[in-house]
Amino acid sequence: MAFTERVKQILSWYPSDNPGTLTHLSRMLNHGTLAGTGKMVILPVDQGFEHGPHRSFQPNPPAYDPDYHFQLAIDAGCNAYAAPLGFLEASAGKFAGEIPLILKLNNSDSLAKVGEPLSAVTGSVKDAVRLGCSAIGFTIYPGSGARNVMFEELRELIAEAKEHGLPSVVWSYPRGSAVSKDGETAVDVVAYAAQIAAQLGAHIIKVKPPKDFIEQPEAKKVFEKYSIPTKTLPDRVRHVIQSSFNGKRIVIFSGGEAKGSEEILEEVKGIRDGGGFGSIMGRNSFQRPKDEAVKLLKDVMGVFKGK
Amino acid sequence: MAFTERVKQILSWYPSDNPGTLTHLSRMLNHGTLAGTGKMVILPVDQGFEHGPHRSFQPNPPAYDPDYHFQLAIDAGCNAYAAPLGFLEASAGKFAGEIPLILKLNNSDSLAKVGEPLSAVTGSVKDAVRLGCSAIGFTIYPGSGARNVMFEELRELIAEAKEHGLPSVVWSYPRGSAVSKDGETAVDVVAYAAQIAAQLGAHIIKVKPPKDFIEQPEAKKVFEKYSIPTKTLPDRVRHVIQSSFNGKRIVIFSGGEAKGSEEILEEVKGIRDGGGFGSIMGRNSFQRPKDEAVKLLKDVMGVFKGK
Amino acid sequence: MAFTERVKQILSWYPSDNPGTLTHLSRMLNHGTLAGTGKMVILPVDQGFEHGPHRSFQPNPPAYDPDYHFQLAIDAGCNAYAAPLGFLEASAGKFAGEIPLILKLNNSDSLAKVGEPLSAVTGSVKDAVRLGCSAIGFTIYPGSGARNVMFEELRELIAEAKEHGLPSVVWSYPRGSAVSKDGETAVDVVAYAAQIAAQLGAHIIKVKPPKDFIEQPEAKKVFEKYSIPTKTLPDRVRHVIQSSFNGKRIVIFSGGEAKGSEEILEEVKGIRDGGGFGSIMGRNSFQRPKDEAVKLLKDVMGVFKGK
Amino acid sequence: MAFTERVKQILSWYPSDNPGTLTHLSRMLNHGTLAGTGKMVILPVDQGFEHGPHRSFQPNPPAYDPDYHFQLAIDAGCNAYAAPLGFLEASAGKFAGEIPLILKLNNSDSLAKVGEPLSAVTGSVKDAVRLGCSAIGFTIYPGSGARNVMFEELRELIAEAKEHGLPSVVWSYPRGSAVSKDGETAVDVVAYAAQIAAQLGAHIIKVKPPKDFIEQPEAKKVFEKYSIPTKTLPDRVRHVIQSSFNGKRIVIFSGGEAKGSEEILEEVKGIRDGGGFGSIMGRNSFQRPKDEAVKLLKDVMGVFKGK
Amino acid sequence: MAFTERVKQILSWYPSDNPGTLTHLSRMLNHGTLAGTGKMVILPVDQGFEHGPHRSFQPNPPAYDPDYHFQLAIDAGCNAYAAPLGFLEASAGKFAGEIPLILKLNNSDSLAKVGEPLSAVTGSVKDAVRLGCSAIGFTIYPGSGARNVMFEELRELIAEAKEHGLPSVVWSYPRGSAVSKDGETAVDVVAYAAQIAAQLGAHIIKVKPPKDFIEQPEAKKVFEKYSIPTKTLPDRVRHVIQSSFNGKRIVIFSGGEAKGSEEILEEVKGIRDGGGFGSIMGRNSFQRPKDEAVKLLKDVMGVFKGK
After folding, report:
1. Which of B23, B100, B108, E226 would bridge B119 by S-S if both were Cys, CB 3.0 to 4.6 A apart?
2. Which residue among D22, D131, D133 places its CB closest to the CB of B132?
3. Does the global pTM surpass 0.80?
């Protein structure tokens, strides 16, 4: 596979990183079906920890098995597979080198939702290196009263990761007492969350598809004054991408709750048309039977290749 | 004793661990009456710290003596003996090499129950190495407002233990403001607690036998939608095992409060029939006179050998 | 590209390594024209330091440029490119992710040949990580009065590299007061040098093609007593491979001084027929005009694919 | 297997060691056919590095394979298997827990015999821990001009090993400009070498069977004055054992060069009758076909059991 | 002052360096009369240590004063001023920010010329940071029996300097038992010395103007076979530049012993015409009265601007 101009262009947006970090970033961009296109589809499986095992895996029981997700990501031709320590430990030695891995370094359970949202740090950069990962992953909750704890943990981990030649993927999910339920996916809030992740040094940013809603009164004034379009998903995605260093950071979008294939592909087209770099699709893939999941992921990749 | 295929299979579930960690894991699997079967019966004695000496040892006064428990575990043919620092320090030099040891690295007293449940770290990996232990032990309380403190302590200790070739045994006991009293042994909560321990990197997970009760509304929907059976203990144990990486983590069950031998053996049969890997039995053994305790433990091992 | 059974088999020979080290090893085995075959052709360019710039690069002046060698290795479809710090620094940021890199951590100049052969340590594991390398390289001179210095430096670097998930490539070149000039490529000495590298923990071993000559009297007795065949190159390569943990270490052969393409391909066939894992070809490639070099390297790969 | 009084007695000779070190010591004493007898038969395979691969393995070609020796030691029921880093790395992950391992931390090649005998340090305590070893091994050459280098390296390694709960096995082989060829196995010199190892803190001492020859004039006077018997092998072994803290250190004897089974068993009987603790038998085992080697090792164990 | 394309091109040759290192490099390239041209004239004053104070400063007594050299470099419009710790310490606080500084981290005195040439390390990266320097300086003596010591010191210092965002300037002066007196400035040896510095990671390389002489027989063959021109100084400079990564490293030339202005300017023209990046001129400047020195340095800069 020849190294494409598009990947070189993307790498040029990170001129302060050492070659090690760029190498791992290019590894994810150059793996799987979308290799070289500058687009990414990542399989994330942290729901066992975040939502509990039955809610996550019972819809498709083979998914209880850690090997299952490695194989699914490989068979579907994903760019990378992201999971917490335990899931990677359980299978990394067996699938060594078969697919780029992202170790999610913090996780939040839904057994004890006490106080402001704050994840526990459940892995280290050293673990990521030992397990052969190509990146670290980390979740921040802008809007949480505990946001600064997470911002500070993140920047220390990003710095340590870079020293080890590892880029970072940041899940930036507004949540907590400072945002309304609708506000969590408001276009102004999502764009702001993406900007925060970018300013903290994220190489890849993961946000939820923004809805046509504006949470913050101050933001509302600006959207109105400058007539920033927010009607269609492509409009809103475009704003989020622009808010991520004018499109110079890789921003990918999560699929959220399980839904129908048709609906998913429609949403993915919107993401693509707005200039999104890809999708990160967990429940919508591993909660389907494997052949359906592989088909769906391939269809999603087809959409991204379509442009 | 020949190395069995079953033990090799179990070790193959930990492909990212170094040979040192696998060696100590196999040491516990290959010791005592159940050696080579892939089943384990462990004697844990942390009740002196957790419940106080009289509540723990007065029912069988010789148990006040640290030597007593080493000898009990040896005579009964247990796979390992687990205790806090003081108890191991008191006798490890005398019984060196006679039985695999697990140093419990945190403990919670019941003198001061203040705030959310949180154990104190009472030992170190270095202590475990110095005392010749084959594993570290650690308790987490999913459901506690202080859970993240314990999750983060645990992951650092697991990482340090692995560097020293030591596997980890995690007591995962839901407790705290986020779970009801019944919820502590609800089948959904126990399964979730096992999943959390596995994702944090535990090699062996200890939970309580789950009851036929579902705590979380979101979980209830899933149990109903997919008709997950929870009537019998084997049904529930089976769900917990599945929730522990599809059976690819060693899960053992505690006996809980002291009760009659009949009742215990019945419960153990249920654990065995659901695919449980063994029992960890404290009060039900050391609070009986020694010969009765040895007999009971041997009977329990007999049940596990029976399948 | 599907992950092949052959690569999985090779990785299985390193069961004590962490997934990180296996991942980088598989990266080299899965890159370029020979990806997945279990064979390797590596471009090494340390001659600027070892022999001086004019002797190395004047035959093909574009080779004075560090970018040239990256591009040559990429265009020829090599598995990896190996060079000292300066050459990698000069271009790694530009070619990040395009080809697996091996940082040679020690080098010997030919300006000052004083005392027993001993290379200077010219790079670190941290450099290799920072530059995004997939392995460290190191030269030992068995037969040198200073061999123990190199053996000890090597084992420390291998240990540090493994912690960072990096495998090691060891150039094992007998040299020094204890071996005659002919002895440097004697079949017994080359096989012994390969064994030493393997015992020190090398993942990939590089030796010179052995000649039909036996240096050590004690070895001669054994070769005669057991009629070990040494007439043909395949015979001798076979003995070297067997001496490298019965073929369970990757052993590749250098091309040595510049010579004609015909002669090179003949030698490569011998290496292949004896079970050699590949070639590392410096002067014979970069001292030719680029198109000739690419053709030769592809022909060499063709030979290895032929079996 | 019950813990024997004899093993407890042996452990009582090391009252200053922590329980971790005693545990690993008892592990070796309690493994294999001789478990619990206080006797040991160890398989050592460092000859690939020390004598070269062909001299070592060609007599029985399957021995080129690192797996071979693990399996041989297991099948023969040895107490432990000792080898350099490379051989252990190659198979420890595969045979984890099946047999106690001793990592030989230094090695000497016979390609370059330059200067006074001095081995290179080729492994670390950290490696031993990572690979799950039960002891470190180290060779000293009393009589070498470089002896102090080795003595000092050894004491640092023993101290570090003890911190990690690992006992030490010391090969004490008089060699170098200060001893004659015959003197290397002279009874006074062997006894002195054993004493030095014991004084440096060795837990297990390996020496060669002493010959009826006295090297040092000063020693000769004493042997004569006090009529120390040296005629028979039992006499001489008894003197060496006495010289090792009055029998309170485990002393085992090497078999040396390959020879006939009859001859070996005769020698082993002499070692047993003199109070030797066991044999360490490399070439005499792995250079035979496997079934013959297993038979011989079992016969040797039979001899030791006979007393 | 606009940032020139030429400076950007030069910085592009160091794609693996962090922005800090590039920033300090550009600082030197963008200071003084030659700012932005890609050419450099540096004032070095280490002769007080290297040759003694009277030999160095008596010809122009104000030069005994450390302030003198700062002011000279400033008044003459040099790109940077290089000196050992003491000279910089004495005045850096006073002239803070007025001119880029290079701290020479090793120095060799001429009181005790004992053994193979080897400089003492007389400063640290930490000193360079504390004193506000823009680079570290270091001297290596290729050809010395002690060369490996210096090569290893240098690579560690370069690595540490880069971490602190400091580039390195390497004085590469062949010297020692392996080169003849004439050989020290032989064109093949100077080119080789430049290559070694580049491979060790130097950002700026300082060599002596090469003479029309070839030292090494192996090199002579190459120069003759490929008719490498060496008659004129531009020819020889061109070869040295090519030998420094095909012109992708900054190579500057020293003036050597004091001589007439005419002679100096003639030599500088040769350096310029061969593609040299500049001059480093110590004795020829500070041993003249200040106004003459300023004039000479300005004339030298005029020559470099002329092309």
Report:
1. B108
2. D22
3. yes
